[in-house]
Each structure stands twice: as structure tokens, then as C-alpha cells.
Design a protein that fits this description.
heterodimer; A: 3% strand; B: mainly alpha; Rna Polymerase Sigma Factor, Chain: A; Arc Repressor Mutant, subunit A; 2 domains; 8 helices; 65% helix
Chain lengths: 112, 193
């Protein structure tokens, strides 16, 4: 006398149960969906602005976002390192100038 | 790249099921609504620009992770306040009462089980009660396979495990469901296959 329950019936019964949600739950789900869509719109606007600034990045950035992110990071680090190196080089020159002024050149300067 | 209309349509098509999934897992409607909202926002934020056909497994994975996060937070919160538990009454435990979920088959004073007259609603109630008794991973696999209609590979992606694990979870879930439902006079026809 048991009731036979196959996969389709099980799925359709569970589907039926989702159609009888209280109005308060439906309202919350609707507002949740709206919040998610706003989030997507905000994200898209930021991306669109970036792509407007640098149109050439639009396609490759969409296809390989992680790779391009890493490339940007690497470039930024490279710029910082170059800046630091330049800064050090300037300091080296000033140290040499100072040594010439006070006539305190190291011996290696007279070798040539 | 998906449009906001595609995302909206997708979310509208899955939100009710997602809510049910969360309710089966956490037994609390408000918490379930929060979980669904979090999952929707995460999908839109992180994967809103993905093609629409990639949404289903991604959303399921996010949903399951959000449910797990909920339990983690709950565990941390309960651990944090466990020191104070001896000073308070046990009123806070009424959030989830096992007796509300478990059925007592031997108790004749309970409403009649649908051996004789089964309306769809009663059957749904029985199925939902059985689903709530499944372990989380088994329930996840069972619902994804037999309600969501995912195949084994898609379920594995959504659950973040191997296809073998999915098969094991499904098999165990089906066996457990079959046992529980049989006691209520309902036979899962594919359980014996």
C-alpha cells in the first residue's frame, strides 16, 4: 500500500513547496535580488570606466583577469624599485662631489 | 559576459530553491534569508561578469559555502558565550529543537501518517522532514542531483569534491531517505536500483 515516489515526482513536489512561500519571504528574496543586481551594476561601472580609460585592455582583461592583475602588480613593483635605484644613484653622485670638495678622494679614483 | 537581465532572471529562477536549501540546512527562516542574500551578492560581486551558463554551479557552491560560514560563525559565537551558559536559562536553545524535526513513529497520538490519505502537501512535509534528518553533505548531494537535476560532474563542481564522493553521498542519502520515507509509507522507486 506504499506510495511510489520517483525522481520526477520528488522534484515536482519540492518545486510545489517553493510556490507556497509566505509573502514576507518573497519580499525579502526580491530585495536580496535587487541588492545583488545593484552590486553587479556598481562593479560593472568601475570596470567600464577602466576600459574607457584604456580601451586596449578591455578584451584581454576580461579573458585573463588574474594574469593582467599580476602584470600590473609586477609593473608597479618594478617602477618602485627603479625609483629607489635612481634615488640611490643620486646619493652616490653627491657623495663623490663632497669627497672632491674636501679633497678626500679614495685611492681608487687615482688609479686610472 | 552576462547582462544584469540575465543575472536577474537567473536569481529569480533559483532564489526560492536556494531559500529552501538554506532552511533545510539551518532550520531558521531568517538565517536562511540572510544566507541567500549573501550568496546572491557574492555571485553578483565576484562572478557577475561570467557567462550566464556558468551561474548554476557557481551559485550552488557559493550558497553551500555561505551555509558552512553560518555554522562556523554560530560555532564561534556559542564557544565565546559558553562560559556564560551556566548562568542563563536554556531559553536560547529553542532556536532548533530536535523534537520539532524528528518524528516519533511509535507515538499513536501523533497525527496520522499518510498511509491512507496523502495529499501533496502532506507528502512534501514528510519529504522535507526526511531531508532535514540527512547529514549536510548528503543532503547537498541529494538535492543537487535529484532536485536541481545536476549530473555527477556538475554536482562535484558545485560541492567542491570528487565525482566519487558525490556518488557515495548520493547513495547514502538515497538509502537513508528510503528508510525514513518507507516508515511513512512512501517508497523511493530508484532507491533499490
Amino acid at each position: 500500500m506504499g506510495i511510489k515516489l520517483d525522481r520526477k515526482t520528488l522534484a515536482s513536489l519540492l518545486d510545489d513547496s517553493t510556490r507556497q512561500l509566505p509573502p514576507t519571504v518573497e519580499a525579502r528574496l526580491f530585495s536580496a535580488r535587487q541588492a545583488a543586481l545593484q552590486q553587479q551594476a556598481r562593479h560593472s561601472t568601475l570596470q567600464a570606466r577602466l576600459y574607457q580609460l584604456v580601451p586596449a585592455l578591455a578584451v584581454p582583461m576580461r579573458q585573463h583577469p588574474v594574469g593582467w592583475g599580476a602584470a600590473f602588480l609586477f609593473t608597479a613593483i618594478l617602477v618602485v624599485v627603479l625609483f629607489q635605484w635612481q634615488h640611490l644613484a643620486v646619493h652616490d653622485h653627491s657623495a663623490l662631489d663632497l669627497a672632491i670638495l674636501i679633497d678626500d678622494l679614495p685611492v681608487r679614483m687615482y688609479v686610472d | 559576459m552576462s547582462t544584469s537581465v540575465q543575472l536577474s532572471d537567473f536569481l529569480a529562477s533559483v532564489e526560492r530553491r536556494a531559500f529552501k536549501y538554506a532552511v533545510y540546512a539551518v532550520h531558521d527562516e531568517q538565517a536562511a534569508l540572510d544566507i541567500v542574500q549573501d550568496a546572491m551578492i557574492k555571485l553578483a560581486e565576484r562572478y557577475g561578469d561570467k557567462p550566464a551558463e556558468e551561474f548554476p554551479p557557481l551559485f550552488q557552491r557559493i550558497l553551500q559555502n555561505t551555509i558552512r560560514d553560518h555554522f562556523r560563525r554560530q560555532k564561534v559565537r556559542s564557544a565565546r558565550f559558553s562560559l556564560f551558559s551556566s548562568f542563563t536559562t536554556s531559553q536560547s536553545e529553542d532556536d532548533v529543537d530536535v523534537l520539532d524535526i524528528l518524528q516519533d513513529e511509535d507515538n499513536p497520538s501523533q497525527p496520522e501518517t499518510p498511509h491512507t490519505a496523502v495529499a501533496g502537501q502532506q507528502l512534501v512535509t514528510i519529504i522535507e522532514a526526511a531531508l532535514r534528518q540527512l547529514p549536510a553533505r548528503q543532503r547537498e548531494a541529494f538535492l543537487l542531483r535529484y532536485w536541481e537535476g545536476f549530473d555527477t560532474a556538475e554536482t562535484a563542481v558545485a560541492m567542491g569534491c570528487s565525482e566519487g564522493s558525490v556518488k557515495t553521498h548520493c547513495s547514502r542519502a538515497t538509502t537513508t531517505m528510503a528508510h525514513i520515507l518507507k516508515r511513512k509509507g512512501v517508497d523511493l522507486t530508484w532507491a533499490s536500483n
